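Contributing: when you submit paired examples, paste them exactly as shown. First protein:
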Amino acid sequence: MTSTDQRLAGSLEDTLERARRVRPLRDFPTVDELLASFDALAEAHPGLVSRRRIGTSRLDEPIPMYVVGSGPRHHLLFAGVHPNEPIGFRTLQHLAEQLCTDPELRATHDATWYLVPCIDPDGTRLNEGWYAEPADRVHYARGFYRPAPDEQVEWTFPFAWKGLWFDRVLPETQALMRVIDEVRPRLMVSLHNAELGGVYYYVSEALPGLVDALHAVPESLGLPLETGEPESPSLTRLAPAVFRATSLADDLEFVEGLGVDPGPLLCGDSSAAYAARYGTFSLIAELPYWSHPAVGDQSPTAATYRDTLLAKADALAGTGRLLGAILDAARPGLSVATPFRRASEAFIPVLSRMAEQERARAARPENDRPATVAEVFDNEDLVRCFRLRYGGMLLRALDAEVDAGVAPAEVRAQRARMLEVWREWTTEARALEDLTTLPVAALVGVQLGAVLAAAHAVAERDRQAADGGEAAR
C-alpha cells in the first residue's frame, strides 16, 4: 500500500467514525433558531469564530457568514440555497460545533471554514411550517415552497449561451459571488437535499479515493445509494450515484440535441460553474427524506425504458394541463403577488416542456430495453413528487387570496377545485407502501461525512501537486 493509500484509508476511517457520531435529531431549525445557534458559538469561542454580514436579502434581512479557524486551505459551505432543503442547516450546525470543540478535527484539516448558515432566509421562512414535523410527505407538500427558477440562489449566476443571456442576479447570489471571489475556495459545498430515493452526489471531478469514500459513508449509516433515474438525462455519470457537477449549458445542449427547442431561459448558471474559474472543487451531497426498497433494485421489469419514459411524459403533460387550467381560470381574479403565485406561474408550464423532452428522448433507439425496477419507480414517483409540490404551491397561492379577503367567487371556486384534486393526489401518495422515513441524524451524518471526505481528497490532491512541484525543481 502506498503512502497515499494509507493516508486515504486512515482519513476514511476517521470520517466514518465522525459521521456516526451525530446526535439524534427529528426536525429542522427555523432561520431565527439557526442563526441564534451560530451566534452562541461565536460568543462562546471569540478567538476562533468570527461573524460578518455578506449581504442582504430581497426582504432586507441580513445574511451572515461565520468563519472558523485560520488554516491555509479555504473551504466554503452554504445552506438554504433551495429553501425546501433544510438538511444542510443541521449539517452546518453540527460541523461548526465540532470545529469549535474538537481541536483534533481543526488540526487534521488545517483549513479556514467559511460557513453561510442560510443564504436564502426569505424563501426559508416560507417552508418553516413543516420543519417541526418533516416525516409526513403530505404535510411537507402542503407547506412546500420552492422559488421560481429565476429566484433561486443556486441557479441565478451570470450565464450566456448561443445568444441567450441571464444577468438578473439576485442580491443573495451577488453576496455569494463576492464571497467566492474573495475566498477562492479550495473546496466548496452547496448543501442540498432531495425528497425520496437514495443518496447521490455531484462532484466537479473524481479525486483519488473520493468515490469509494462517498459510497462508504451512506453504507456505514444504513442508507441506500440512488441507482435509478438521475435528476437529468444530460448528467455525466462518474460512478454509481456519483455525477459530474452540471451547468445550465449541459442541459441546454442536451435538449437541443434531442431536436427540441430549449424554450425561454428561465434561470442562470450554478455556483459550481461560477467557482470553477478558481480551480475550486465543488461537492453536492443529495439526501432524501424518505426511501423505498425499489430505489436500489436493478432487476429488469417487463416494461421497456421507452414505455416508462412515455408514461411519465403523458402523466406530466396531464398534470400540467390540469394545474394550468386551474391557474388560468383563477388568474383574472388574482391580486396578491405572492412568491407562491410567481413559482406556480413559472413551474406549471415547465411540466409540458418536460413531457415534450421525455417523448423526444424515448424515441432514441438505446431506450428500447428493459427498464429496471428502480427506473420505473423513480419515473413514476417524479410525477407524484411534482403533483404534491406544485399542487401544494398553487393551493398556497389561492389560500393567500382567500386569507387576505380579496378572492372573488371564481378564485374561491378554483381553490375548491384544487382542493378536490389535492385530496386525490394525496390519497394516492399515502397509498404508496413500504415508504421509509430516514433518520435526520443519518442524513446529516452522510452530508457531514461527504464534506470531510472531500476535504481530505482535496488536501491529498494539493499534497501530491506540491510533491510534484518539488520533484520538478
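Second protein:
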Amino acid sequence: MFTDSASHLDDLAQFVLDSPTSFHAAHTVASRLTTAGFTQVDEKGAFPAGAGRFFVVRGGAVIAWRQPERFDDTTGLRVVGAHTDSPAFKVKPDVEFTACGWRQLAVEIYGGMLINSWLDRDLGIAGRLLSRDGATHLVRLAGVARVPQLAIHLDRGVNDGLKLDRQAHTQPVVGLETGVGVLEALAEQAGVAPEEVVGHDLFTFDSQAPARIGLGGELFASGRLDNLSSTHAGLAAVEDLGDGDDLVLFATFDHEEVGSETSTGAAGPFLADVLERIAAVAGLGVDGFKALIARGSCISADAGHLVHPNYPQHHDPRIELGPNAGPMLKVNANQRYATDAVGEALWVQACERAGIPHQRFVSNNAMPCGSTIGPITATRLGLTTVDVGIGLLSMHSARELCGADDPHHLSRALRVYLAG
C-alpha cells in the first residue's frame, strides 16, 4: 500500500501506460497479483480449498480473492468491484481501407465517448490477436493514427457547432495507401505471419502519457481514468492485504461502458461463478452460500462527476464536489446507483477509519443519471452494494482530469473496507 498520494499517483500513471485496453489491464493486474503472492487459478480445473490468495483471468476481466482456512456462520464477505474498459474506437473485422491516397483504420464507436475529444490526437492501436494455433497475443502500436479535423477554411461555421457523422468523420488516418498495413505491423510485433491471425479485438488509445498539471501539480490528466482509477485503487488495496477469517474479493470487469451484458461483464456470470465455486469447495451447500451472501457487501468503485466550473448549472445547485476533497458516495433515488442507508454507513465508516475526506454526489433532477456495475451486482447476487468513486472533469473524453490526491484517498478507503 502506498503511504502517500505522490507515489500512488506515479504508480497509477504507469498502470495506465501499461493498460491501453481491458486485455492489457487484465494482464497487468494478473502480473502484479502474482508478484504479491496470489496464485492464478484455471477455470477449466478445480478450485483450491483452504486458506490462500488466488485469482482468475477471463478475457479483459480479473477476480482476485483471499480465502480463509474454513467457513462458518460468522465468515464475512466483502467485494470491491470496478471495470477495465473505457470508451474508444474499436477496429472493425476488416481492419483498414484506402481513400484519396490515404490508408485509414476502419472503426466503430465503443461506449459513450466524447467524440470531439479524440480529434487531432496521436492515437495508438492496441488489443489482442488470436492466431491459428489458439494463442493470444497482446499487441500495441503507439502514436500511429489520427482523426484529422477539417480546416476552418473549408468549414467557416464549425465554431458555431461541430457536428460529427459517426461513420464519415471518425475513421483515423494511419498512413499512405502504399505504406505498410495495420494488421501486418501488429502481426510482426506478435511474431506471427499475418495470414495466421484468425481474430482480433483492437482499440485506439490516446498516446499522450498521464501527467500532473496545474500550477502546484494538484491535478492529474490521463486517459482511461474512468475506470482504471478504481481498478488501480482496488488492486493497490488488495496487493498487501493481511490474513483474515473473511472471504474478500476484488473484481474488475470488462464491457461496463456498453452495458456489462457479456461473459466478462458485471451482468454476466463471472462473479457468481467464482463465488459459487469457492463455496462449493468449502462445502457450504446452497443454504450456507446464501447465508454468506446475506452477510456480505460490495463497494462498486467507478468514477463520478466533479462540479464543472464552466457549467455549474448542470449539477445539483446545493452540492460542491471538488478535486482533492475525497472520493464521492453516489446516490440516486431511482437506483441508477445502488447506494442505500446501510451502504452509506458502511462507506462513511471506512472513510473515517482511513482518515480521508469524502463527498456525496446527487444529480441535478433535470439531468439524466448514468449508472455503474453497482445496481447490476446488487440485482444478480443480492449483496448490499454502495456506489463510490473519485470525481472527474471531462468524463469519457480521450483525456480526463482529477485531483492528484483523490486516487490515493480511494485506495485507502478500499483497503480499510477489505480489511474489515
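If you have annotations for the second protein, write them as plain sentences, like these:
The chain has a mean pLDDT of 96.
DSSP finds nine helices and 20 strands in the chain.
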